[in-house]
Amino acid sequence: MDEEKPSLSLTIHHSGKSHPISLPSTATLQDLASLLSSTLQIPVENQKLLISPKPGLQKPPFAATRLDALIPLDSPRLKITLLGTPAKDIAQLNAQGEATRQRDEARAAALSASRQQQRKAASASASRSRGGIHTLSGGGGDNSYTFHRLLPLSYLPNPSRSQQFLARLRDDPGIRTAMAKHRFSVPLLTEMDPIEHTTQDSRTLGLNRNKGQVIELRLRTDAYDGYRDYRTIRKTLCHELAHCVFSDHDRDFWDLTAQIEREVDRADWKHGGQRLTENDFYNPGDWQAMEDEGEVFDECGWTGGEFVLGGSGGSSAGSRSRREMMARAAEERMRKEREKDA
Predict the structure, then answer these.
(1) What CA–CA distance (Å, rounded) separates 162 from 190?
(2) What is the pLDDT of residue 78?
(3) Where is each WLM domain found (predicted)?
(4) Strand order through the sheet with 188-191
(5) How far, in Å, CA of 11 to CA of 210, rounded?
(6) pLDDT digits (tens, 9 = 90+) for 8-28
(7) Residue 195: CB partners within 8 Å, gap ≥ 6?
(8) Is 191 noted as a catalytic residue in this protein?
(9) Which domains, ranges and CATH numbers included, belong to the chain?
(10) Model pTM score
């Protein structure tokens, strides 16, 4: 082909640019692809030739057909477009892809190592606290003595508001002060489903599991249409924090509860509150009065097992009362929705 006198002049369009080339009159489609490979550095196997108006798209392996028999060389509409990427661009893309892969693998390895360290730290912390009060033994500062996780019940209405309520309790100046003073570190503060802790005779306001592993609080009203008074819930929380030390409702427990209540009330007073009385904010008499009204704070600190109010745990009567409460709550919600629509 090199010995023949060029007689074919073509223009090849590639990536928005025009490339004039010359070929012998006997050149074939294969010859054209070879010439483009050497001049534009695009391997033949990466080339596609779009020839219009016909024969259209040509792909490798290209036929050994003469160009003068394949394409209308004299047509003013003739246009040959080369589709393909130069070898250097392909190499650069491959290098970038390899660099991205290595970076992603490094990040994944670092993330995995970090998570493994977190699991080890959590396991070590759980081992230290298992079987006793859930506190940290110094070195962590006041930030260690708090509720480390907040958990609203996602299946109940408006869980975001419950999250805000739990955060308010966690960040309450009085609660923070009392927890730091007594070195209380509670892994989980969560809300209680009222229906699950309500019988015909009583309503549980709070629970402390395994001496501070989990504290549950009754945030919502029985019909799920609102939230209970904040200071009453905070009062319950002080009661449950005392169960981190004492399980039974004995004199030591009530003395600690009263002390925590005074500390919470005093810290709240310093932050803009106003103390109206010198009486204890919380005392056994208050609890007894609320119990007479059918509200109980808990059945002392407890560990594992099934907890059912009213004594006969697991009885059919208890199950029926819970179902009745759920039905009444649903009816109350429907009634309020109908009144709102009306």
Answers:
(1) 9
(2) 92
(3) 138-335
(4) 150-151, 188-191, 214-217, 206-209
(5) 84
(6) 899 999 988 999 999 998 999
(7) 222, 322, 325, 326, 329
(8) no
(9) 8-85 (3.10.20.90), 147-269 (3.40.390)
(10) 0.46
